[in-house]
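Ticket reopened. Same input as before:
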Amino acid sequence: MKIKEVNRLTLIWGGLSGEGLSYLRNKANKNNFVVLVPENRPYLLGLNYNIPLLEKEKIALVYCTDNMLGFLFYKRKIEETILFCKEMAEREVLGICGSLYVALLSKLHDVPVKVFLQGTVDFSGKDKDASALQGKKMVLDEDSEWVEKGSDEMVSWEVLR
Amino acid sequence: MGLSPLTYPVKIKGNYLEVLDETALPFEEKYLKVRNLKEAMEVLGSMKTRAFGQVLLFFYSCVLFDDFAIDEIVEKFKKTRPTFDFSLLGRILKEETKSRVSLKEAVAEFVTAFDNSRRDRAKRLADILPCPAKILTICNVNAELIYLYEELKKLGKEAIFYVSETRPYLQGTRLTFWELRRSEVPAYLICDNQAASLMKDKKVNCVVSGADRATRKGDIVNKIGTYSLARLAKYFNIPFYPLTQYPQDIDVETIEIEERPKEELLMFVEGDFDNLKTVYPSFDLVKREFITDSILLVGSNLDI
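Engineering reply: fixed in the latest deploy. New output:
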């Protein structure tokens, strides 16, 4: 699709949960919108976990890589962000790799963020860092130790509100 | 420190061009023969070469495939890669040939001068980066970060790079991370979305990128993902320095942002994606307000 063809996007980050799907289903019944599914590196949760769930529910979606989000925010294509986190605490939430990136870009573009607990995602067998894609090595063996692990990230509620 | 193959990814070899196939890196250093303009368009369109490589490809095509006028070659290059300013390259080439005996001589001198200017630009950037320099970067600037590292070391500044993988084409992983590591430069590879976390944890203290286009107002167009880095850097009070050349008196919003095909977005992943809807803008706009300072190539601030 061309950028000019996409509008009214709801960005999701992290693994969809039943509660999140229910929210999107209800929203789809009332509004015309499209779910924006970024790939969620390093795990590719977007491609391998979220897309099959959304397709099963027949919820309209469009896929992109994580680094395209800034451009889509800049172009005012994103109306809402839904962050699926692993844990919620009084002062912050714990989300997968990239949660802070998404939360801050939302904040900086005045896009509201809704937070749900993440679904039960099996991370075993998924890529752990940028050295591989679907298990396929993208760096030379001797450089493998020079790769940052994809760690969970804390995001304060201050950023999310 | 040896010369990176990405320093001159396109070379003129008698009656053909030798093009480094950047899509085969880092696992294979393979060179393609380009014998005519049609083949040149194929390597350009399939992104076998890009950035400085596409500049060299353009200039050398003008030298070798002289059954086409420079303006015809400009049009073909523009049609294949619409965001990059090949019209400007055409104007530069015509200007250069005014005072030279031959096109070949003009191109050879320009290429040498251009690389010298890139070394100079790296030196000027090294002067202003902090010590230690903890540099976040994106995509690939054809060996200029190696020049930067050399200049930082000359100044006694410790340096470490964090390279954003640059999905979907992975220029960060396959080109920048590879060329820095093969030169034994300290460099870590990260997922594109780890930038904010790195900034928050103070693992990086500056951001350096290339720029495919620059305007006189100070705005730039660069690889997709650059805007996010610039915006986040501003939020964390981290300086953002794009390496720029030939700023033009145009409105950045009028520059066409190339959108690449779905097959390329998904080229490194496997699955059945026939019905999947995707978007793939391949460049970002970054406004002046998010740029600390553009490090301009000396001699490129011209009215052409």
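Residues 249 and 296 of chain B are 15 Å apart (CA to CA). Residues 103-128 of chain B form the longest helix (26 residues). Please confirm and we'll close it.
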